[in-house]
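Review form for a predicted model. The reviewer records the input and the model, then writes brief findings.
Reviewer: anonymous (R2)
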Amino acid sequence: MYAIFKAQGKQFRAVEDAVLRIPSLAAEPGDTVKFDDVLLAEQDGDVHVGAPRVAGASVAAEVVGHGRGDKIIVYKMKRRKGYRRKQGHRQGYTEIRILGIDLPDGPQEAVAAEAAPEAGTAPEPEAAESAQADITPVARKLAEEHGLDLGAIEGTGKDGRILKSDVDKAIAAKEGD
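Model under review:
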């Protein structure tokens, strides 16, 4: 059993009794912390993938201690200018021991299936608008001013895009009637 969780903006793989170094937490050694931002979990071959996180899942851990990582040297220099700067940095961390991984009861796939639309359903209204997205803004405005149906106008632009000239022709045909 393992889980991928997010803490302090980074992702970590949690296995029970593992000791991890994560960015510094405001907790004392011996305290218990709980991470609710579980992105993926595996239990007995069943993988639960979150969208964006697994609902009801959490990782419990005990703070072992705090420390600082190895020193990193940052050296800047401009040649022939006499400019040199040397600076060191040690990143702080919190060492935690994973106590347990809690997963919700019941299948996660059923929740995801209810949220997804079925294959035979009608398209959403937003999808219908995106089908008519190949219209220049000037042509759209002109068609709205004259009350024209854009679905009835055939586009002569690249990939069937409706241009201003197409709307002008439709206006002329409407006035000729």
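Findings: The radius of gyration is 30 Å.
Further findings: Strands lie at 2-7, 10-15, 19-23, 32-35, 38-43, 46-49, 58-68, 72-78, 83-89, 92-102.
Recommendation: see findings above.
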